[in-house]
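Could you help me review a protein record that somebody else here produced? My question to you is simply how this chain folds and whether the C-alpha cells agree. Thanks in advance; the entry in question is below:
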Amino acid sequence: MIVDDEDKLRSLLTRIIQLEGFLVREAHDLKTAKKILDKESIDVMLCDVKLPDGNGISFVQDIKTRLPGVEIIMLTAYGNIADGVQSMKNGAFDYITKGDDNEKIIPLINRAIEKVNLKNRLQQLEGQFKKNYEFENILGESNLILEAITLAKKVAQTEATVLLTGETGTGKEVFAQAIHYGSKRSAKPFVALNCSTFNNELLESELFGHKEGSFTGASKEKKGLMEEADRGTIFLDEIAEMNIGLQAKLLRVLETREFIKVGDNKSTKVDIRIIAATNKLLLHEVATGSFREDLFYRLNAFTISLPPLRDRKSDIPLLAKHFLRVYGDKINPQIKFFNREFIDSLKKHDWKGNIRELKNIIERSLIVSNGTELTTKDLPLEFSMHNTENNTLSAFDLASVEKLHIQRVLIHTKNNKSETARLLNIGLSTLYRKMEEYSLQ
C-alpha cells in the first residue's frame, strides 16, 4: 500500500511497483489507509510523513502496535533525516527521500518482503511447535487421565503455581508444557530443569545465575534459568531433590518474584510462573525434614496427580498405536500393525516405567522384529513370563530366572557381550554357552 496525498507521485510509484509483480493499494490519507488495513492483508507500506489528516511518523507507531507484521517504509522530505530516524525508532523498516530515491524503492521493498516472509515462516513454525504441546496431544480415554487433563486445562488459564505428582514416566513434563502453551504466557519461554541432575552449587547457579568471579570457574557473568524464563514458565522437575538452602531461595521467588544471583548483592526481579513436579510424597519429605513445610504449602496450591499406566491399561492400545506410528517409519517401515496377543501381553505387564517404558518397548520391538507386524515374539522375555502355558520354563524355575537376568543385562549393555560378561562376573565363553542354551540372540 502507498499512502501519499500527491496524486502524481503516488500513481508513478504504483506503476513502478506493479511492474515488479506486486499488487498495490493506494490511499491519499490516513483515514483511507486505515480502512484498507481493516479489510485487506498488507505486507509492506510506503507512507509519507506529512498527510492531510495526520502525521505518518505517529501512524507508524500505531500500525506497528496493531499490526506488527506490516513493514513500513517512510517517504521523507529532502534532507529531513530527523523524520526518518524518528520513524525508525517508532518501528519503521527504513526510509527514503521522497522523489529522489525512486531507484532504491524496489530493492528496499524486496528486502522488506523477505523480512515479512521470514516472520510468517517463524510464526508458522511456532504454531506447529505449540500444536505439538496442546492438551489434545495427551493421549488417553480412561477416566483418570481425562480428569487430570480437565484440571490442567482449568489451571492453565490462571497464574497459579502447579504441583504435578506421579511416578517416573507418567508424563509430568508433557502436562507442564500443555499448561504453559494453554496459558496467556504461551508466546513466552518455557524453561525446564531437572533438579536431580546438578549438585547443590551448580543447581543454584543454573537457577539463579552468577556474577563473574563468584566462585572458581565463574569466568563471566551468567544469566540463570529464572531470568531466561522471565514472563514465561519455569518447570522444576524432581523438586524434592533440591536442598533446604535452595528451597528457601525458591520460596522467596514464589513470595516476591525476585532473587539474588550467586555473588551479587542486589535483587533481580522476574515475572514467572512456576510448575513443579515430583515422584516422591512431599508430605513424607516434610515429615523427615528434607523438604520445607512452608514451600510445600506454596507449591501445593494446585496439585494434579498423574495416574500410573497400570491404573489406566485401557489406554495402552491407543498409546501403542501412537508409538508405532511415530517410530515405525523411522525404524521398520514395513510394520504397520500388531496382533491381539501382542496387546494382551502389554496389558498384563506392570509398567513400573509407565509411558516411557511403553515407548521404549515399542521401539525395541520394532528393532528386533523380522515380520510384517509386531507379535509376542518381539517382546522381551519378562512379557512371556505372564503367559506360563506358552512358556516352556516356569517363572519359578532357576533356569528361567537366569535366562531373564542375562537378557536384562544384554538389553542394558545394548548387546555388548564383553560388557555383559563383566557385569555378570562370568567368562565370555560361559556367556555364549548360556545364550545358546537359552536361545538368546
